[in-house]
Amino acid sequence: xxxxxxxxxxxxxxxxxxxxxxxxxxxxxxxxxxxxxxxxxxxxxxxxxxxxxxxxxxxxxxxxxxxxxxxxxxxxxxxxxxxxxxxxxxxxxxxxxxxxxxxxxxxxxxxxxxxxxxxxxxxxxxxxxxxxxxxxxxxxxxxxxxxxxxxxxxxxxxxxxxxxxxxxxxxxxxxxxxxxxxxxxxxxxxxxxxxxxxxxxxxxxxxxxxxxxxxxxxxxxxxxxxxxxxxxxxxxxxxxxxxxxxxxxxxxxxxxxxxxxxxxxxxxxxxxxxxxxxxxxxxxxxxxxxxxxxxxxxxxxxxxxxxxxxxxxxxxxxxxxxxxxxxxxxxxxxxxxxxxxxxxxxxxxxxxxxxxxxxxxxxxxxxxxxxxxxxxxxxxxxxxxxxxx
Length: 389
What we know:
Strands 7-6-5-8-9-12 form a six-stranded mixed beta sheet, with helices on both faces. Strands 4-13-1-15 form a four-stranded antiparallel beta sheet, with no helix packed on it. It has a four-stranded antiparallel beta sheet with strand order 3-2-14-16. 36% of the residues lie in helices and 21% in strands. The longest helix has 34 residues, at 3-36. It has helices at residues 3-36, 42-65, 76-86, 160-174, 201-209, 219-231, 262-271, 301-313, 326-337, and strands at 100-107, 123-126, 129-131, 135-138, 144-151, 181-187, 191-198, 244-251, 274-280, 287-288, 295-296, 316-318, 340-345, 356-362, 370-372, 376-378. The model is unreliable at 1-9, 16-96 and 381-389 (pLDDT under 50). β2 and β3 form a beta hairpin. The chain has a domain at 142-339: Rossmann fold (3-Layer(aba) Sandwich). It has nine helices and 16 strands. It is of the alpha/beta class. The chain starts with a helix and ends in an 11-residue tail after the last strand.
């Protein structure tokens, strides 16, 4: 074998050895890979399934980490409504037509209001004949419809400021928003509605403060027109639409311009079921102080007119001794309006249309008590014996 052949032979062996080594290395690598168990596809799938649980767990941790949110309290209006809904509600008084309806005030010898009477304590007669009471209730929860009648004639110019302040105080302490309503009417040469029905005392107060005195006095016309307005007063919504109609008159009682007579004004008030409360502004006094407050011994013709309006309609007359006593008179009216009784009955003998029937209400078994209510009613063609319907 020559030298070249020997060289070629050795190189062939080296090449074979190199190839064998490469194959050995590749085989070992493949086996190592199988031993490590690498899984290229399943691993990402597991990672895609876990995030949902991880996110939920992370959200729970975030919620626990966050401080609790402070609840915003409901508005005051909502709170008041909730409180009202939780308060015990008085059963509404529902009556039918064809009934005579009365508002009665009971007082003792000391002029204190008696508010603990029951239906059995009252006795009602019509034209001297006993009538059974069909409906009875305490008046404190019935809505008010109030007409404030302010004399703005020249005769009360000096006292007008005191009358205005007392009237405003009365309305603010008597009217209940969203239940009671009132209107303002003035009269001098003629009656005039200054402010229509509203439940807002501040609106009425502004209207009262704007008034100025001047002119004559048309008292009868004013009471007649105001009674008509009270007869057609707005009623509460719902089945229970009973209201109390009250007319408060501030005047000296002197009338020199009315077209209506006093009897016509009283009749209109009776038909409308209006109770008239009058406050005299007369300064002509002859008094005695034997009681808790001065008693007027001498009444002017105007005082007697005001007293007649109140007595016939079941209201009350006040004679303030001083202008400062006006506020006390208004306060007494407000107290009385919350201390009354409601009585209704069906006449056993229905009267003819337009007929006048006398009414008398007593508490016979309780001595020393006085009952004030209207003295009678006029029947109406709209109902069989119901006044002012």
